[in-house]
Design goal:
Strand content: 35-45%
Largest sheet: 7 strands, mixed
Number of helices: 2
Distance between the termini: 35 Å
Strand order of the largest sheet: 1-2-3-4-5-7-6
Number of domains: 1
CATH class: Alpha Beta
CATH topology: Aminopeptidase
CATH architecture: 3-Layer(aba) Sandwich
Shape: globular
Structural class: alpha+beta
């Protein structure tokens, strides 16, 4: 079944000082999710991000429909609104390869600062 982001409901949760999460729901089914944690005195090469990207996951049967890009765009919209930077340590899963995953995040505005480590700055 093909669905579009516009057919989905967005459910966001932000707990200041702790976490931010976004779920994309199609009916009662969660088709995509993004989870980020607030970082506390965490740094890489003198970069102190505000958020640590825990995961972005799209259910396998819904991949290739733009839901991952849509979800990530909404996460980055939230980050820009709050002036939050994000660190992402890429970890491919479920048939994704590192280059595809890295390229995906770079297309959305992340910069690679080390092998497997990406950074987004609003």
């Amino acid at each position: 079944m093909k669905i579009t982001p516009e057919q989905c409901e967005i459910k966001e949760t932000y707990v200041p000082g702790t976490q931010y999460s976004l779920m994309l729901l199609y009916g009662k089914e969660c088709v995509a999710v993004a989870d980020l944690s607030v970082t506390v005195e965490y740094s890489i090469d003198d970069i102190y991000p505000d958020l640590y990207f825990n995961r972005l996951k799209v259910k396998e049967q819904y991949r290739g429909m733009g839901l991952g890009s849509f979800t990530l765009d909404k996460v980055l919209e939230f980050a820009r609104m709050h002036n939050f930077s994000i660190i992402n340590m890429t970890n491919p899963y479920g048939g994704l390869d590192l280059k595809q995953l890295t390229d995906f995040y770079i297309r959305h505005g992340f910069k690679q600062i080390k092998d497997r480590i990406l950074f987004f700055e609003p």
